Amino acid sequence: HFWASCRAKRQIFALSFISNVSFCEQNKSLQGLVGLRNLGNTCFMNSILQCLSNTSELRDYCLRNGHLTDLNNNCRTNTALMDEFAKLTQRLWTSVNTDSVSPSEFRNQVQRCAPKFVGCNQQDAQEFLRFLLDGLHNEVNRVTIRPKVSVEDFDHLLDDEKGRRMWNMYLAREDSKIVDLFVGQLKSSLTCTACGFRSTVFDPFWDLSIPIAQKSTGEVTLKDCLRLFTKEDVLDGEERPTCTKCKGRRKCTKRFSIQKFPQILVLHLKRFSDSNIWASKLSTYVNFPLKDLDLWEFSSEPSERPVYNLYAVSNHTGNALGGHYTAYCKNSAQGEWYSYNDSRVSPMSSSQVRSSNAYVLFYELATPSHSKYQTCRL
Ligand SMILES: [Zn+2]
Predict the structure, then answer these.
(1) GO biological process: any one (predicted)?
(2) What is the CA(252)–ligand 1 centre distance, in A?
């Protein structure tokens, strides 16, 4: 039965491959190697737009106008941001004989929704990414009337069941193509040092802001940074939480683990301090893998082996007072890396992708745990 179903899928795959070939022959310019003009301090926006344009599933959603179906079903009135984002993505992948396109219509929508991202101030690319994904999600949310949150007591449940219920509660309110791709679930465990009681909290995340590990000798790896992020933390003094079991403010230990891995994992390297974003910048070289980033040790469920491959990086060069953003993206059709520096797009070697300028990393899950095609890879 297994082989019969694989054979059927291979036939479907073969047919879709043939139609894809003719599609590509008709559209030789369908490459995504088009730059974005700088409209005056818009490199942070261009960098993020190129990373998102090279997110295959999001690009395909825009190319096949999937957002229009979602918009129609929702009867929303204000869908201008998604409209402009989709139009721009389509132009990046279908423009003929064009080196660069202007993102001015898209920028106008950003200005309407979030004026703070337009102007001459230095902007933060990760902050912009959060704003953009949130804005796009709200316009294509499949949920039109969000149900009221019923405060249910899940404390009697086992952790996994609690996590699942919390995730379903989230999906009941927030459910879109953007959520399908980018949102994961973080588990935080709090243990009371007085009575030993452990409580868990589950939160959705759109990206993870990872502190940069510091080492006196040797290089710092992405896993060092992730270990620092998930390391047990002591909450003491003024930070002491109230223990629900022994009913008092107690010294507690806290640690994060990943309960649900997203399809697209966005890792933000905290190069700028929280308190004053442009006060100082850490230019530490963080060594990150381009392939096979195995995150099992950060999973709440030790039997899970989530493996990710890198496909885009948003880079920040310069210092805390002034700088420039570029993007390095892997072209999904060719498997080659390109550097996107506003209107200029140039090929690059994969060995140049890692640098101390890397600021936001975009990884895609290589082993989709819920994919029905998982066992039939060709
Ligand atoms: Zn306690």
Answers:
(1) proteolysis
(2) 8
For residue 165, what is the enclosing H or E element? Answer: helix 159-171
For residue 259, being part of any structural domain is answered with yes
The count of structural domains within the chain is: 1
Each residue's pLDDT tens digit, 266-302: 999 999 876 555 568 888 999 999 999 999 999 998 8
**Domain span including residue 192:** 27-365
In the predicted model, what is the mean pLDDT of the chain?
Answer: 86
- ∠ CA 126-127-131, nearest 5°, is 115
- Whole-number Å distance, alpha carbon 164 to ligand 1 midpoint, is 25
66-123 pLDDT tens trace: 998 887 666 666 789 999 999 999 999 998 778 899 999 999 999 988 888 877 677 8
Condensed to tens digits (0 to 9), the pLDDT of residues 46-62 reads 999 999 999 999 999 99
Residues 307-331 have a mean pLDDT of 93
Measured in Å, residue 155 CA sits from the centre of ligand 1 at 15
With both helix axes pointing from N to C terminus, report the angle between 56-63 and 43-53 in degrees, rounded to the nearest 10: 90
261-297 burial code (b ≥16 CB/10 A, e <16): bbbbbbbbbebbeeeeeeeebeeeebebbbeebebee
Domain assignment of residue 10, yes or no:
no
Query: 243 C-alpha vs ligand 1 centroid, how far in Å?
Result: 5
Q: Give residue 373 CA to ligand 1 midpoint distance, Å.
A: 46
Q: Which residues place a Cβ less than 5 A from the ion ligand 1?
A: 192, 194-195, 197, 243, 245-246
Task: State the pTM of this model.
Answer: 0.87
**Residue 231 sits in a domain of what CATH number?**
3.90.70.10
Residue 260 placed within a domain? yes
| Residues annotated as part of the active site | 43, 324
**Residue 4 pLDDT greater than 90, yes or no:** no
Question: What are the residues whose beta carbons fall under 8 Å from the beta carbon of 303, sequence distance 6 or more?
Answer: none
pLDDT for 17 equals 41
CA of 254 to the centre of ligand 1 (A): 13
Give the pLDDT confidence score for residue 95 in this predicted structure. 86
Q: What's the burial of 130, exposed, middle or buried (CB within 10 Å: 0-12/13-18/19+)?
A: middle
